[in-house]
Specification:
This protein has helices at 47-54, 77-86, 104-114, 121-135, 151-163, 181-198, 209-215, 233-238, 243-251, 257-265, 294-303, and strands at 2-13, 19-31, 36-41, 62-67, 70-71, 87-90, 169-173, 201-206, 218-223, 226-232, 267-268, 277-280, 285-288, 308-309. It is of the alpha/beta class and 312 residues long. It has 2 domains: 31-52 and 75-252, P-loop containing nucleotide triphosphate hydrolases (Rossmann fold, 3-Layer(aba) Sandwich); 258-309, no CATH class. Strands 6-7-8-3-9-10 form a 6-stranded mixed β-sheet, with helices on both faces. Helix 6 links the parallel strand 7 and strand 8. Helix 3 runs parallel beside helix 5, helix 4 packs across helix 5 (151-163) and helix 5 (151-163) runs parallel beside helix 6. It is globular. The N and C termini lie far apart (42 Å). The chain binds adenosine-5'-triphosphate. The site of adenosine-5'-triphosphate has 13 residues, from strand 1, strand 2 and helix 1. One of its GO terms (biological process) is transmembrane transport.
Length: 312
């Protein structure tokens, strides 16, 4: 579905003294339809630069991007427009994508107008209502300004906005890192739910190996512009090969196993979390798909919602 072939990007900045950075050096990967690839690495290692090159927001110095079998690097703005619909990006700061002077309704209809998806206002309104329902926010927010909504609502709205064009691929650049841990878990569960419902393909960028470990099918570890190790999530987390991966895995120690075990003994069921089972460790909240415990399944059926452990 999405392929990056030997992508490289070099930056040169500074006025008096030039500063050179090889932000990305020869990075290649492929993501199959419906798959989630995670990219993990420390701050400044080049993760967002990859995302920008994939989206066509920056041209690679070398290499190419392929989407759905077509090479999309080097296309003109006009040619890129059709492909943009297929691939959307969700950023770390939702507020940066919302015009502070305009109501949410404006930001929601904008992509549909630019890409001429629906011509009639009524159809646009209908589509927005469907999407708000899907991401779990009230249409009452449409008449508010960005400063009048919460961070979690803003990120859900950004997800709905990205979906207005029926994309096949979502690039998620630290989409939950600015959110409170409990909201973070709900947004992550929502993203996983949407992937299953809409058959989406994700590239998920984060420095948080714990979240990636739960969310991704495969993970690539990045350091100083290069992929140092790639593999199935299980292998990367439990059997890391590269010293940098080991360091990164060690920094997340036992992935909150003790707290998880204790949480399993004492789950609570909040309203409307609709999805999977959530466990909250002292620092993080994350979900665990399915449950082998029949009592839990019964509770899910009854409440229509997931088990969430209370914070310790
Ligand atoms: N427009 C630019 N001009 C000059 N240098 C840049 C530019 N954009 C990024 N860089 C540099 O390229 C490197 C990679 O930046 P990038 O934003 O991709 O890192 P990152 O891994 O996403 O970091 P973070 O996790 O902190 O967001 C950094 O050293 C950064 O300072």
């Amino acid at each position: 579905m999405l392929k990056a072939e030997h992508l490289s990007k070099h930056y040169c900045s500074g006025v008096i003294r030039k500063h050179h950075v090889d932000a990305v050096s020869g990075v290649s990967f492929e993501i199959g339809k419906g798959e989630i690839l995670g990219i993990a690495g420390n701050s400044g290692c080049g993760k967002s630069t990859i995302a920008r090159m994939l989206m066509g927001l920056e041209d690679p110095d070398e290499g190419a991007v392929w989407l759905d079998g077509q090479k999309i690097s080097g296309l003109t703005m006009g040619q890129m427009r059709e492909h943009r619909k297929k691939m959307q990006m969700i950023f770390q700061h939702p507020e940066s994508s919302l015009d502070p002077q305009k109501k949410i309704l404006f930001s929601m209809t904008e992509p549909m107008k630019i890409h001429r998806v629906y011509r009639e206002q009524k159809k646009m309104q209908q589509r927005i209502e469907e999407l708000f329902d899907l991401v779990g926010v009230s249409t009452g927010l449409l008449s508010r300004y960005p400063h009048q909504i919460s961070g979690g609502e803003a990120q859900r709205i950004m997800i709905a906005r990205a979906l207005t064009l029926d994309p096949k691929v979502l690039i998620l650049d630290e989409p939950t890192s600015m959110l409170d841990v409990s909201i973070q878990a709900h947004v992550m569960c929502l993203l996983k739910d949407l992937r299953n419902k809409l058959d989406l393909t994700y590239l998920f960028i984060s420095h948080d190996l714990e979240v990636l470990g739960w969310f991704c099918d495969r993970i690539s570890i990045m350091s100083r512009g290069k992929f140092v190790e790639s593999g199935d999530t299980e292998q990367i987390i439990h059997n890391p090969g590269h010293p940098f991966t080991k360091e990164l895995v060690d920094s997340f120690s036992n992935f909150g196993q003790e707290e998880k075990d204790e949480c399993k003994q004492n789950p609570v069921f909040p309203d409307g979390c609709g999805g999977e089972k959530l466990y909250r460790s002292s620092q993080k909240v994350f979900c665990e798909p399915g449950s082998s415990d029949p009592a839990d399944s019964g509770d899910r059926e009854r409440t229509g919602c997931t088990a969430v452990c209370s914070e310790k």
